[in-house]
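This part of the workshop introduces the protein records we will be handling. A record pairs a protein's sequence with a compact description of its fold. Comparing a sequence with its tokens is the quickest way to learn the format. To make this concrete, we reproduce a full record directly below:
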Amino acid sequence: MDHMELLLNLLCDNPDNKTFELLDQVMKDVYLFRKRNLIKPILYARVLKLSAQLGNFKIVSDIIRQMTTLGYYIERPHVTEVVKQCVDAESAYRILDAIIVSHFEADCEWYHTLIQAYCENEDIVSALEVLRLYNLSGQRPRIKFYSTIIHKLAKKGEMELAETLVNEMTEYFGPPNDSMFNSLIVGYSKKNDTDMVFKTYQKMLNMGIEPTKDIYTTLIFFHLRRKDIHEASILYKQMTEKGIEHDSYLFAALIYLRGILDDSEGARKTYDKMKAAGVIPNTVSFNQLIYSHARDKKISAPQIEALYLEMLAEKLEPNHYTFELLIDAMSKRHAFAKICEVFNEMSQKNIPITDVAYNSPIRHHGLAGNMELAWKFFNRMISAGIEPSMYIYTSIISLATASSDFAIAIKAFKDLLARGLTPNVHVYSALITALVKSGNTKKAIEMLNHMVNHGVSPNHITFTSLIQGFANKRNYEKGKEMYELMKKSNIIPDRFTFYHLEKLYKTTGHVEEIKELHEDMKKYGMDPRSRERILIKGKGSFYWRSRILIKRRIERQKANINPEEQYAIKKRQRKLWKRRNRIREAALQRLYSKLQSSQSLEPYSIWKKNYIQENYEDLQRYKKAETFPF
């Protein structure tokens, strides 16, 4: 025995690859010949530590399994030293797993360490296996094991399994605590399941559990994401009444609120207030600050970039949300050169680039009418190995349709099918609109049949596009058939639908059916006499002519002026809209003077009479002592 100790100490004092081979052989021989208690535990720990230093963690885990079979048990401080030598998480898992599997009565902290390690590595299945292994060992279950796994499941949105574990935990430990309820609320809010968020919160209150700061913050964020400022304000008021102190996450929620209200100045004031209160800003609060400034059109691209530099000056590490917000802000301001810089920085920092980051430049290139550039960004995303989402395909097809670039819309649709994705109703509707606009109603009908056969229900936009196509081709039978099918499918038509139907009936000589159409409009709560059936109100030919001309002029200005001069454009736009209002005022004044001279509505057409009735309040401003015949 003394000779064995001397040999092992000698090998440990002279570590190299040859030594490692000898150590491995000695340990195998000890196990093979069942030489129980031949080595002291402290020497055994030293052998393990040296083996870990030399880097073969598989052999380390094998040695642990073999030696524990012989009755050796390595103490926790020694295991810590061995695990510290691990260069990656997988090696640590092997060693910890070897300890737990080979010695069921190992310290519960090792089980928890391994569960945490698997959860951090997104391996929930292995974490659950460790939990089951611990429970089978006959030891008393631990609440922190369940909490760690449930918290991770909630973050991933796997709420069914999370609820199962909560019920199992309740059997062992009684009702869940506030931390557990917070995890469940976080999970349901990520899934945007409003009913379950309210039910979970109500269940917590019924159990007599007081909401904590974390729960309040989670709920406030949830309501703000739903744009429900009223509910968020009620919760914030409850917090302040209870005297709960503000932390960085709560301040982040308040900054986010300012962002929703398009109040970048208010967001900056809230941030300054946070710093004045001695609360250290975190990445989340800076993300919300960037978001609130990105929504403000008066804030330029350099100002957004300055916020990012301020974040780095605070020694905060940006995450993928930070970069996605920056890309979205730069895309809205058409600073596409800056977007490339942001992508490069993401690559340098090893931050994963997702389809969300690419969606914004693709969308805004499309909105600017540069579908070719949008398609280039799409190809760049594919070449980077990123799978495009349905949202990106919907954006490309919708924008290509709006800009009459039907070839790209069809190309994107074929690519979508080739990748095995199932198109949604928005993709089909956009594609049908593209086919109708290009005059190919036959293909549009085929696409509708393809849509129905694949279990996708059409919406009002789908049918309205088809009715518009048949109205343009003066095909009364098909247009009427689409309208009847729409009613049969219980799809509510909008004003555009009725506008195109009325146009179809007039152009095909079926004027008598317009009365029946007007009755249908009344059933859906629309006024047939109102010009609002195409989302406008009858304001006279002067008004609409000036509006079209002004809009065209603005578009020309936008195309020719540098994006950095957006504020100057807005200023000119306001002047042009004021001019439009002056034209409308002049039209109303002329109408008033005519009414004064005639004192009767009989000479006017039905449309003009309706126009006078609808603009009655505006006309009253010109009235002095006279009385109108209406």
